[in-house]
Fold this protein.
Amino acid sequence: MANQGLPIWEVFIRSKNGLEHRHVGSLHAADAEMALENARDVYTRREEGVSLWVVESKHITASNPEHQGELFEPAQDKVYRHPTFYKLPDELEHM
Amino acid sequence: MNTQDLEKKFQDRIDAGEKIEPKDWMPEKYRKTHIRQISQHAHSEIVGMLPEGNWISRAPSLRRKVALLAKVQDEGGHGLYLYSAAETLGISRDELFNQLHTGKAKYSSIFNYPALTWADIGAIGWLVDGAAIINQVMLTRTSFGPYARAMVRICKEESFHQRQGYEILLTLCNGTEVQKAMAQDALNRWWWPSLMMFGPRDEESPNTAQSVKWKIKRKTNDELRQQFVDNTIPQAEILGITVPDPDLKWNEERGHYDFGAIDWSEFWNVVKGNGPCNKERLAARNAAWDNGAWVREAALAHSEKQAKREELKQAI
Ligand SMILES: [Fe+2]
Ligand SMILES: [Fe+2]
């Protein structure tokens, strides 16, 4: 039987409480339950996490790298959004 | 932008040390080379489970058995990380398996040699995983993001593989004369095939230059092979066994070991399918795939049934 039947899932792991879930890779599974079980075996054999998320890859909408410029370049000339843009005297502490 | 400009921009990104991600523009040859290399690597991990898996039920102690079981499971995991990385380039898992099962795809020739004694399990961990580690550490800095990330994960897991193998040989070498002879015999059989794992000599591998330019490889086959020999000889000395190479000697001037000529006719013969276990390995993979079909079918049928039941519940 074709593996096309088994959809691709993306796997996210929270390595410990207090940290966000991070993408670690993907796998094939028939449903969410199987995806979770497979994720446990494939990605957490050495206590890599305390929580797992799985989401079917087709549900992720990704930005197109060709639109990288129009999406992200406008932020480049907005240096005034960074604290270092503001010139303050050296003697000023803790700001 | 025309292809030439795109290629120039692509090379500039590589030269600047940027990583390439799956949806980025890339030359067709870069994509194809990666699909081939990553899938060969994945197949090697999966087929590599076979010679060792054969010894799990015959491991001499529970300690050895859990270690070997964990190692073989890791290799399965490595295969899965790598298949996922290859899939990001637009090839399906199905097609990848199909290439392996029909014999169209290659995997590392080392796994076409048999594991005849328990000492072979030690030699495989020490030498085969040792050689793989040298290659894989280099690949953690490869230019394609998903491949590099898979390598980081894999390298973290490999070190235990090599150490458990070396410990097996250390125990045998500190044992009876018969046990030590078994370790020596394993080294005799695995040494040359391990050196061949790095691939043909630099002058015989025409793709190396392009691979280095694209930062797929960061070192040549011969450089990696030399590094392996330099690492391994002192380790053999600690074991008190010797590699089967009368020409091996330390070269003070080069600061490296010189070693004898590799029999490349043996290498090409195994690559072409005539190694001791080529047919057996392919048959085992095909059997595993075919015998697992009902599990995949059942899992899918179950998920479809669950989904329908869920739909019905919501309709009510
Ligand atoms: Fe591995
Ligand atoms: Fe390994």
